[in-house]
Amino acid sequence: MIQIDGNTLNLQRFIEVAVHHKPVTLAEEAKGKIQESRDLVERYVEEERVAYGITTGFGKFSDVAISKEETEDLQRNLIISHSCGVGNPFSEEEARGIMLLRANALAKGYSGVRIKTIETLIDMLNKGVHPIIPEKGSLGASGDLAPLSHMVLVMIGEGEAIYQGKRMTGKEAMKEAGIETIVLTAKEGLGLINGTQAMTSVGALTLHKAMVLAKMSDISSALTIEALNGITDAFDPKLHGVRPHSGQINTAANLRRLLDSSKLTTKQGEIRVQDAYSLRCIPQIHGATKDTLRYVLEKVEIEMNSVTDNPVIFTEEDHVISGGNFHGQPMALTFDYLGIAMAEVANASERRIERLVNPQLSGLPAFLTEKGGLHSGFMIAQYSAAALVSENKVLAHPASVDSIPSSANQEDHVSMGTIAARKARDIVYNSSRVLGIELMSAAQAVEFQEHKEMGLGTEPVYTTLREVLPALIEDRILYKDINTASELIDNEKILQAVEKKIGDLSI
């Protein structure tokens, strides 16, 4: 059971709920603060005091007064009018992450939402009612208005949801799950949709996958180093100690452990004096990405436990402040950075694939097939990798450098943070497929070595891959192999086999 209180959620707990469906409960100690903020909202309504989104309209309509008799209509109208998402829905994991993050933000007690409303959101998580939330349509300020509105539609018995594998109306899903729908009261509609939870959910899930890929990039490159009789002097700890970036030091250490006891690697001068950058500079390239991932993790975990609402209610001072905590710029820049960093991992991997298949660079049979001409071997596998990294270069253009005014220029700078998160997600997917192709190519290249002893960390990679993918003797349909190799990355089977043998790899 994961308790949420608005302060202690981290990436690991987020993944346990969003991916592994661990149940959630609202911490008892959070309820007092939640109720205090709710009491203040109700007092403002009763006294008809002017406060944005409580007794006024929204956006450009912030100067329109709303009577206490109209507050319920105001909040319902907000949700149904803002449900303007388009495109494919977010995945089940992404939708679960959105709900968890919104409930956690509300649990801090600065939003004025009722305890009952938060518990409805938690019940939906625990019972598997997953709103259909279109992934396009958010500017990332004022938060993820359109995506979060689609989430709230189901809470009020509207919209659509997936329940027990079936798509149905929100009303049907809530009824079948035994969850009572709610009637939104003062401030609640705004409190549920003013925030960065869609971009943060997508970004957090992407970060988790990126952290796995960061380790897998070391693993796949170690296998390539062996296939090309790479020089290990470049991974000497003395070299990296004089340029002490943590990611660089950790990557070099990972490579030394992976290649320990290998008879396929060489020392400088034995075959050649130095390797190409895509081999020699692995610690510097992968290390920079790992430093980025640590930065992204810090920012994501701050955002997970932040109040991204507007207005924010401070009960101690009897004060409601209208500000801009919903603005997604901190996440927009962060997820752009994540996408760029992961695109570089794939770039380096594709260059290593080229070195494996190109006989002028490898000394191995062209395209890793013995009967070149009759067979094409890994020729087009490299094409696919090249296409993926080229697509990544387009996707890596920052979303955060764009802005467009909205709400009659009241909201004249927006973050595009949700686009940044979605682009990073697509880059990570593409990169996992490039690494899968590198694993296949490197394992095939090893077949042409004299089957000398492999490294302590690379031997389980080769063995795990060969359990499901035999060596390529004659041409076969390779997209199936690419999918299989990539699945071994996605389900962490190769990573687990390696870490079981040599211990956890570092990021």
UniProtKB/TrEMBL annotation:
Pfam families: Lyase_aromatic
Catalytic activity as recorded in UniProt: L-histidine = trans-urocanate + NH4(+)
PTM annotation: Contains an active site 4-methylidene-imidazol-5-one (MIO), which is formed autocatalytically by cyclization and dehydration of residues Ala-Ser-Gly.
Enzyme Commission number(s) from the entry: 4.3.1.3
Cross-link 5-imidazolinone (Ala-Gly) mapped to chain: 141-143
Modified residues (2,3-didehydroalanine (Ser)): 142
Sorted UniProt keywords: Cytoplasm, Histidine metabolism, Lyase
MF GO annotations: histidine ammonia-lyase activity
Pathway involvement of the protein, from the record: Amino-acid degradation; L-histidine degradation into L-glutamate; N-formimidoyl-L-glutamate from L-histidine: step 1/3
InterPro entries: Aromatic_Lyase, Fumarase/histidase_N, HutH, L-Aspartase-like, Phe/His_NH3-lyase_AS
GO biological process, one term: L-histidine catabolic process
Domain of life according to the entry: Bacteria
CC per GO annotation: cytoplasm
Protein's cellular compartments: Cytoplasm
Family statement: Belongs to the PAL/histidase family.
Name of this chain's protein: Histidine ammonia-lyase
Species, as recorded: Isachenkonia alkalipeptolytica
Native organism taxonomy: Bacteria, Bacillati, Bacillota, Clostridia, Eubacteriales
